[in-house]
Amino acid sequence: MQQSAGAPLPPSQGPGYGSGGWAHQGAQPGSQRPPVPSQPPAPQQPPGPHHMPAPHQPPGPHQPPGSHQAPGPHQPPGPGPAPAHAPHVPRGAPVPPQGPPAAPSSGDSTGHIKLPPGGPVPLPASPPAPEGGTGAATLAVLLIGPAGAGKTTVARHWAMSRRVPTAHISLDDVREWVCSGFADPQSGWNDHSEAQYRLARRTCGFAARNFLANSISCILDDAVFPDRPVVGLGGWKRHVGPGLLPVVLLPGLEIVLERNAERSGNRRLSDEEVASIHGRMAGWYGSGLPIIDNSKYDVETTARVLDDVLARSLTSPPSW
Fold first, then answer.
1. What is the DSSP track for the chain?
2. Predicted local distance difference test score (pLDDT) of residue 188
3. Which of 27, 50, 81, 194 pairs with 211 at a CA distance of 20 to 30 A?
4. What is the tens place of the pLDDT at every residue in 67-111?
């Protein structure tokens, strides 16, 4: 019968031997051992009056398989040395361990580095740096804005330009972790897309708290609507903590439409949707949150203005 590639070998034809006649390296428990090869004959000597055959000779070549007996106390050693990888262990003795025992794992540590658990972020207490900006303060930022406002680009640039460790957490990136069964809101807002948005916000909040607990600042970006504060700001405040600093990024409508047209895939919205979202975001005026109009700013300038706004928020946190 022809064997397919990668198929297991057929069972052995005899005890202790494979299909090709080669002896197995070790016998399985309960299986018969292969016959012990006979000791090479001693050189011929002329018979004499005092010549006697040596007692306890090993079994000859015609001994049937399975009749191997343990060597007696006066049995001479065999002709070949024992393999180096199979040390002799007395019968009944405990088997020595093969390696050092594994250290008990802890769910709160990675290797030998203890990670403090994440908790709600308190109100910031770090004063701004003397030279201006946030300096080396550890803080959590929520950058709000409509689609096409440049939230993700500005947030990433601000995080990369800081002198202290800072992480960027994008809500849209976390939402798209769902590969199979992704509920795209462009196909219709329903319970599935709402649930995936809520799940992504909660996941981002957990990540932010863990980063901050380990002295790493973070900035999150999300399109939070002012007419749904319980779902938007209220949800972020529950997930991250009262020390979260929200800032609104709101350029003009024509700038938002132009930037949205440069997008591709499910990140690109129709002009009607962009105009509707931008109109709803105008409700942030008069809310007390700091607002940045970056219609005439490039990315670097917007990130610098954002840092100055956050420095003022550290001195006088907004009430929200």
1. -PPPTTPPPPPPSBTTB-TTSPBPSSPPTTSPPPPPPPPPPPPP----TT--PPSSPPP-TTPPTT------TTPPPPSSPPPTTS----TTSPPPPSSPPPPPP-TTEETTEEPPPP-------PPPPTTSS-TT---EEEEE--TTS-HHHHHHHHHHH-SS-EEEEEHHHHHTT--TT---GGG---HHHHHHHHHHHHHHHHHHHHHHHTT-EEEEEE---TT-TTTTHHHHHHHT-TT-EEEEE---HHHHHHHHHT--GGG---HHHHHHHHHHHGGGTTSSS-EE--TT--HHHHHHHHHHHHHHHHHSPPP-
2. 73
3. 194
4. 455 555 555 555 555 555 555 656 665 655 565 555 555 555 555
